[in-house]
Amino acid sequence: MRDIETTPGEESPYECFECGNIIVAENNPGRCPDCGEPMRNRQMPLE
Ligand SMILES: [Zn+2]
């Protein structure tokens, strides 16, 4: 269950693919606080 490799201590966006909720955190928040679905790391292009 590996997603994208992340740098520890660096914040990255996690997106709920169920409701589209986005949380920016250092670590995977686990589950969406809104709908309870798993959050996934979202590789956001800088430009
Ligand atoms: Zn959600």
Could you explain the architecture of this structure?
The protein is an all-beta fold and 47 residues long. It has a domain at 12-41. It has strands at residues 12-16, 22-25, 39-41. A three-stranded antiparallel β-sheet has the order 2-1-3, with no helix packed on it. The model has no long low-confidence stretch (mean pLDDT 84). Residues 16, 18-19, 21, 32, 34-35, 37 line the site of zinc ion (ZN). Zinc ion is lined by residues 16, 18-19, 21, 32, 34-35, 37.
Short structural summary:
This protein has strands at residues 12-16, 22-25, 39-41. With 47 residues, it is mainly beta.
Spatial ordering of strands, largest sheet: 2-1-3
- Choose one word for the global shape: globular
Rg on CA atoms, Å:
10 Å
Element pattern in H and E: EEE
What's the end-to-end separation, in Å?
28 Å
Largest sheet: 3 strands, antiparallel
Give the names of the bound compounds. Answer: zinc ion
Q: Taking all residues together, what is the mean pLDDT?
A: 84
How many E strands?
3
Share in β-strands: 25-35%
Poorly predicted tracts of residues: none
Structural class: mainly beta
Helix segment count? 0
Q: In percent, how helical is the residue content?
A: under 10%
